[in-house]
Write a structure and sequence with these properties.
mainly alpha
Length: 395
């Protein structure tokens, strides 16, 4: 029988090596990518089932709804269950869901399977608190920054990878490829993830009720969650409307060219570990406010120089650097509140982000229809200003 070191032994033995930190970042990125593979493939799926683009678009909606429900119902389990076993089981369930999408024979089938993909792809939100738990307190910011940067790479690169694989081999093969990737990941995690004992003794019902109590208990968590929701909303607003902007004057780009902008966002994501290390040395609240300021600068660049390709590129890099830097700082702060409640604290933070993203996408589409690119920039700017103020007012 394999033996895994207990949580208490990990810090003494410096078990969280650079290699394990890197693995957690890669695993989180690969897992969260499952949520975004379908977006570049919706038109091809629509053709397969002979449905309208609006009906095909619901595939992405069902995926996100499943993810939101999974965050609320499953992520808190990380505080009462052994995290390694929980991550391995969820990854196995993701494989089944992805195969369900790949073999779908009608729209209802793919709706259900896509919902299941979202529901079971929440492991990244268990991996991040796990990394914070294993890290030494003086290195927590750096570790969280590294893992969050992995998640961001997964979000940004998923669309690019999916678009090209779908173009070459078809949309069904993309989900077969994703399922194979999950199989390999589950095997690696089985041998590499450490055992982490839970310190909480709650029933599942008590656990879910305690999420509300935790939100009421920590003022910092409430304000940071507001800040995070506005930041992620501004992020979602931009990436939702960018396709509309680039398809029209003055760019007239095709989908494969638009997908490359995800790589530019990844350049900005490289700054997340640097911001994480800065959080270990400076006050994370101040770092979050400064990074929010970078996000404001990015939207000003979009407004005044967005119709120039170099201005747009600079804005994308700064947006991702600012938003992800602020989010790393926010997560560093909330993970320091109570080690035994990290999964539930993360649940509150991520659900808030999801709500912000939904609001941002809706406002982005509305702003584009009413005022085009200028309206999008103004709404994004307002959201980040709100995030900055909320972050500043927090304890």
């Amino acid at each position: 029988m394999l033996s895994y070191p207990k949580t208490e032994e990990l810090k003494d033995n410096n078990f969280l090596t650079k290699g394990l930190t890197f693995l957690l970042a890669i695993a989180g990125g690969i897992l969260v990518a499952n949520l975004y593979y379908n977006q570049p493939l919706l038109s091809e799926i629509a053709k397969t089932f002979n449905v309208t683009s609006q009906k095909a678009g619901l595939i992405s909606t069902f995926t996100q709804l499943g993810y939101a429900l999974g965050i609320f119902l499953l992520v808190p389990l990380g505080d009462i269950k052994e995290k390694r076993k929980l991550i391995l089981i969820l990854t196995l369930l993701v494989i089944i869901a992805l195969v369900g999408v790949a073999t779908a024979q009608n729209l209802t089938w793919i709706y259900i399977a896509s919902f299941a993909v979202g529901l079971t792809s929440v492991s990244p939100q268990i991996i991040t608190p796990l990394a914070a738990q294993l890290a030494k307190p003086e290195e927590r910011g750096k570790v969280v920054g590294t893992v969050v940067s992995g998640l961001l790479f997964g979000i940004l690169l998923a669309r690019t990878v999916s678009g090209y694989i779908g173009y070459i081999a078809g949309w069904r093969f993309m989900f077969v490829f994703a399922a194979i990737l999950m199989c390999l990941l589950d095997i690696i995690l089985y041998f590499k993830l450490p055992f982490t004992a839970s310190n909480e003794n709650l029933s599942y019902k008590e656990l879910i009720k305690s999420v509300i109590k935790i939100a009421r208990k920590y003022r910092t968590l409430r304000y940071v969650s507001i800040s995070g929701s506005m930041l992620f909303g501004a992020f979602s607003l931009f990436w939702t409307t960018l396709t509309f902007f680039l398809e029209n004057s003055p760019y007239y780009m095709h989908s494969n060219q638009i997908g490359l902008f995800g790589l530019l966002g990844a350049v900005g994501a490289l700054g997340a570990p640097i911001i994480g290390r800065l959080n270990d040395k400076k006050n994370p609240k101040i770092v979050a406010v400064l990074c929010s300021g970078i996000g404001i600068v990015s939207y000003l660049i979009f407004y005044f120089f967005g119709r120039n390709i170099f201005g747009l590129i600079l804005g994308v890099i700064l947006l991702d650097l600012g938003i992800q830097g602020a989010q790393v700082s926010n997560q560093t702060r909330i993970y320091s509140l109570n080690s035994g409640e990290r999964s539930r604290i993360n649940t509150i933070f991520v659900v808030s982000n999801f709500i912000g993203a939904a609001v941002g996408s809706s406002l982005g589409s509305l702003a584009w229809n009413l005022y085009n690119w200028s309206g999008v920039c103004v709404v994004g700017l307002i959201m980040i200003v709100i995030a900055l103020v909320a972050g500043w007012l927090s304890d």
